[in-house]
Every structure is written in structure tokens, then in C-alpha cells.
Amino acid sequence: MLIKEPELISIKENKVTLIKNFALLERKYDFNLLSQIMEENDLEVINKTSGGNLKDVFQMFAVNNCLEEFTTFNDFLRRLLKYERDKKDAVDLFFSFVSQVGHTHVDIEDVFIIGLEGKTIYRVYSNINEDYTIEKGDMIFIPKGLKHKVIGLTPRIIASIGFYGRRIKKL
User: pTM (2 decimals)?
Assistant: First the structure.
């Protein structure tokens, strides 16, 4: 995992931050792996777009301990950025089988999104609307309260690490 000093400062200042090649991911993340994770764990999966078909976006909750890398990402970011623990903190997977556009929304937690498969644009609405493209191994930080939408350019799988607790300030 690689975060350079300017990127770390940007995150600490609560700015949207894109980190290309954050993690070298050797595992193949595909829909067979998602199926395996679901079979081996009692996980909740919901349809996020409610269209009722395979063109929708799906969310698999609390995969924190399903794969070693998810635990590692969560622990690394929590320790590096000194987040207080909150019972709602989690690593969730979002996936879609086709390219699609999600709804514009605001998260109530800080999110770190890591591309596992496919190509995704995150459109962030602020003073200047900006698009950020992530692919496998890339990460984007979106601070809580910032309006954004997701545009899946291909079928995709992403890990979303959400921290609800505040960051502990140094004395």
C-alpha cells in the first residue's frame, strides 16, 4: 500500500484524494469470488438500485474479515489516520454486472474506495465538479458530507471502507 506525503496531507485536510496504484492486488476479483465469499459467510447483500434485475448495483455488507486484504486495508487506514472505532465501521463491496450510473448521494461517513475490478468514475460535486477514474488497485478518499455519484464504465467490483468515528487529534 502506497500513500505519498502530499496524498496523506490531502486526506488529513478532508480533500477528495485519488491515489493511483495504491495497492498491488494479485488476486483475481471476479463474480466467482463474490459468490464464494457469499457461500462461505452469512453476509447481507442488497440491491441498491431496486430495478430487480442484473443491471442493478449490489452491496455486500461487512466483508471486513472475509479476505485478509480487507482486514489489512481497514486496519492500515484506521491506524494511519487515527480514526476512533465505531461499531458501524465496515468494509463493504459494491458490484454491478454491467456499466451503469448510480444515484447522486452523500455519505455520512468518510469513505475510502478501492478498485478491485473494472473501471469506475466518481463524480464529485463541490465548488468545481470533478471526475475521478479508478481501476484495479486505485483508491479514492471522499470525505463525509460531500455529494457524489458513481458511473460504472464496465462491470465492476469495489471495496468501500467507511469510518464513522472522528479522527483523534494529536496533542
Answer: 0.94
